[in-house]
Structure formats: structure tokens, C-alpha cells
Amino acid sequence: MAYWRLCYHFVWTTKERQPWITPQIEGPIYRWLYNEAKKMYCPFFYIGGVADHVHVLAAVRPSVAPADFMHQLKGSCSRFVSQEFRIPFAWQEGYGVFSVSDSLIDTVKAYVLRQKSHHAHQHLQPAWEETHEWNLGPAAVDQTNDEFLQTPNQHE
Backbone phi, then psi, for 22, in 5-degree steps? Predict the structure, then answer.
């Protein structure tokens, strides 16, 4: 078994940001997502959200791609809610995923668990709320710095 420390902050929304996560279904949704993560051997999983979106802090094994993790959570949860509560329910297609360093785990955990308070008081971290806008990754690549793309002989 490999040594690993892969922690991610995920955020995703209901379809068209509909306020479908009511107090009646919030607990069952959170328990369902937690149990799905445990099936994927996720050693820790924290969840919080508001009526139209969910945040999760999770440690995900290296054999599970973040996209596969999200696909399993979102797909199984949509089916669960639709069947269990007999209501139409769907998640938005996109999601946000952010890697979390060990030094920020407690900060992100607090942010995830206190979503209702953060949204009520507008104490949000805008970058951590992004779910599906097109982007090219962390920071814009400096196109003038091509040295990483060159072979060693090209530096001479």
C-alpha cells in the first residue's frame, strides 16, 4: 500500500441552483453521500451546505480519480433522492475541486461545516464557491517561460 495524503475540497450545486436541499432531505442526503464515500474507502469526509449546493472535504485514495469520486457521489445521490422522496432531483453537471494541503485542513473543514453561517453572513471564500465556470487550472501559465518544455540540450 502506498503512503498518501490526498485531500480535496469539492463543491457542487443542484441543477440550475434550485433550492431543493430542504431541511427534510438534507440529513438523508448527507448520510447517503457519507456512506457512498465510505464505500470508496474514504478515511475522512466532512459535509456542509445550503439549499442549492454542497461542500465536501474528503481524503480520496490515489486509485480513485476526483472525477470518478464526484460521478459516484452525485449519480447515486440523485437516484436516491428521486426514489426515496419521489421528487425530481438533479445536480448541476459541473463541480469545483481544490486540493487541500495538510496545513489548511482545519480551515477548510471549518468552512465546509459552517456553510449556513458563512452564507447567512456573506463570509464566503469566492474561489471555494466556484463550481462549473471554465478555467485552465490553478494559475495562468506564463507563456514566455518555455524552459520547462525544452530538452537539456536546448539550454546551451
Answer: -85, 165
